[in-house]
Amino acid sequence: MAPATLRRAGSSTPSAKPLLILTAAAILLLVALPIALLVALFMIVFGHVASGFALIGISIVVSVGAVVLAGASGIRHLRRVVEAKSFRVVRLGQQDYRFNSDSAGDCVGCGHDHSNDGPPRIV
């Protein structure tokens, strides 16, 4: 039996289905962008200049919007998952990176051999 402190995988995590749908839509729109640009180029060459430029503008705006929306929802989903799983992530302070050292700057009680430590040498 699992300890009581562990949560089940589906207990309170948010669903990833909307994120997957938005990501798939963004990928499809990015794949369709070169095709839309090629069609717009043909439209411009064959005389429909205003429609061609409109197609270029609309396809770029829609593709960028889909990517931004998928990215924003992905970040939001990641935050919800991290909060739901209650990962114990803490930011270390500057004092957490310092080692115990004596007056000569050698580590005390760290258990490592620092005899070869020194400035890097170019060979």
Textual characterization of the structure:
This protein has 123 residues and is mainly alpha-helical. It has a domain at 17-90. The chain is elongated and about 80 Å long. It is 54% helix and 0% strand. Helix 1 (17-45) packs antiparallel against helix 2 (49-85). The protein is built from 2 helices and no strands. The longest helix is centred in the middle third of the chain and has 37 residues, at 49-85. The chain starts with 16 loop residues before the first helix and ends in a 38-residue tail after the last helix.
Cα(first) to Cα(last) distance is 57 Å
H and E order: HH
Low-confidence segments, given as residue ranges, are 1-10
Q: Report the sheet with the most strands, covering strand number, pairing sense and barrel closure.
A: none
- Report Rg: 28 Å
Give the overall silhouette: elongated
DSSP, total strands: 0
Proportion of residues in extended strands: under 5%
**Average pLDDT reading:** 76
* Total count of helical runs of at least 4 residues: 2
Structural class: mainly alpha
Q: What portion of residues is helical?
A: 40-55%
Provide the fold topology.
Layout: H1 17-45, H2 49-85
Features:
123 residues; mainly alpha; elongated; disordered N terminus
Quick description:
This protein has helices spanning about 15-45, 50-85.
